[in-house]
Amino acid sequence: MGTSGVQRSCHVFAAAIVVVVVLSCFICVASSEMFLFNKSTRRSGDMKLEEQRSRCDLYQGSWVYDDSYPLYNSSACSNIRKEFDCQKYGRPDCLYLSYRWQPNDCDLPRFDGQDFLKRFEGKKIMFVGDSLSLNHMQSLLCLLQTAVPNSNIIKQRNDTFSTVIFQDYGVSVILLSSHYFVDIEVEKDGRVLKLDSIKNGDIWKNMDVLIFNTWQWWYRAGPKQPWDYIEYGNKTFKDMDRMVAFRRALTTWAKWVDSDVDPTKTTVFFQGISPSHYRGEEWNETGRTNCGMEKLPMNGSTYSAGLPEASYVLQEVLSGIKKPVQLLNITTLSQLRKDAHPSSYNGFKGMDCTHWCVAGLPDTWNQLLYAELFNNCTNSKAKKIKVGI
Ligand SMILES: *[C@@H]1O[C@H](CO)[C@@H](O)[C@H](O)[C@H]1NC(C)=O
Ligand SMILES: *[C@@H]1O[C@H](CO)[C@@H](O)[C@H](O)[C@H]1NC(C)=O
Ligand SMILES: *[C@@H]1O[C@H](CO)[C@@H](O)[C@H](O)[C@H]1NC(C)=O
Ligand SMILES: *[C@@H]1O[C@H](CO)[C@@H](O)[C@H](O)[C@H]1NC(C)=O
Ligand SMILES: *[C@@H]1O[C@H](CO)[C@@H](O)[C@H](O)[C@H]1NC(C)=O
Ligand SMILES: *[C@@H]1O[C@H](CO)[C@@H](O)[C@H](O)[C@H]1NC(C)=O
Ligand SMILES: *[C@@H]1O[C@H](CO)[C@@H](O)[C@H](O)[C@H]1NC(C)=O
């Protein structure tokens, strides 16, 4: 699979570039080689590419088998956490590595790690959130590291940050672990989750790109719950409806974005709710209580269980923010991937249908991030076409 697959796909990619060169401008392609191909434009040479781009929803589509994937061999990526390194921990099937997300109205560009590093030179990207942020970040690190295997990489770590610096490009990829975004403070009666207080904001502000995510920890109870009280509006509660608490904390975060983010400096993303697979009835396998038997993605574009409630709360809060925040709307496309969790193939041998194998699904999240970050060329291409024709 590995190398030959990658080479085969390069030919496909090169062929696609030639098609676009014919249709549009050479300058644009030469300067970036990076755009969203629009299927109907490729056929008709239509001038309204820009409009079509804005209509192309990257998140509506389906999974297709493509043997030019995965994008890298996970054994070539150092330091994948034991929770995510499915191949290393003996996962016997490989099919789950060879699915590509195909949007209905355009194609996702293939992730090009070297291009990412060049375009992102001198910049800092930070993931803020729980272990799904770590999952997302580790995939990005593998995509980048395997693209420039001989470059200098520095890793730094302390209680707050985990930083990886691609020295030759001055690119920093940083994880700031934060389960709730809002603060937990130790006071005389115990640990207090303060739904209207965010003190980390000053660290976030210095980044060029921020990718937030919180959800997994909101329903934690018992010994795994890392707080004893909730505080909101100067009142203290022993507990409250967790969805309400989630909404309040997100709203606090949203206010922070509106008051503190400088959109000319910082691009803000929110990683949509990442789904788990413990209830077989959601994917037409009533009786199954985990993803252990799953080797194939779902067909089609819809997941019969619908979106999780938290994703509606998230959408509502995001729609109230005045500054630009881009939702990486990974929920539905990840729901279709009941096959992409580690299940029992991880370093602790527990059944895990919450996180995702690396390589695997999070590589697609990063392809979407790549497309959202650098979709610039599509627009300039559209202008060139209008002038040229
Ligand atoms: C990944 O690399 C390892 C070690 O070189 C090799 O044994 C394995 O077959 C490769 N896997 C794929 C899917 O190419
Ligand atoms: C996210 O994508 C799904 C699937 O395309 C869609 O149903 C949902 O409305 C989208 N959410 C937002 C906020 O766009
Ligand atoms: C952790 O490291 C970062 C730089 O990587 C530094 O700015 C920060 O102050 C450090 N935090 C602690 C608690 O040492
Ligand atoms: C909490 O109390 C402080 C000081 O009494 C007050 O300034 C603040 O407005 C109150 N906050 C809320 C959300 O009621
Ligand atoms: C669910 O399973 C039933 C029985 O096997 C089958 O008839 C039906 O088409 C399946 N539905 C989907 C959406 O796969
Ligand atoms: C999904 O589609 C493939 C190819 O069309 C088909 O062979 C397979 O049976 C379908 N699977 C389900 C669960 O419907
Ligand atoms: C878009 O292109 C302009 C000019 O080349 C550049 O300044 C800007 O940073 C680019 N934006 C993104 C998101 O790539």
From TrEMBL:
GO cellular component: Golgi apparatus; membrane
Compartments it resides in: Membrane
Listed transmembrane segments: 12-37
Coiled coil residues, start to end: none
Residues covered by the Trichome birefringence-like N-terminal domain: 55-107
Molecular-function annotations in GO: O-acetyltransferase activity
Bilayer topology: Single-pass membrane protein
Family the entry assigns: Belongs to the PC-esterase family. TBL subfamily.
Protein name, per record: Trichome birefringence-like N-terminal domain-containing protein
Source organism of this protein record: Dipteronia dyeriana
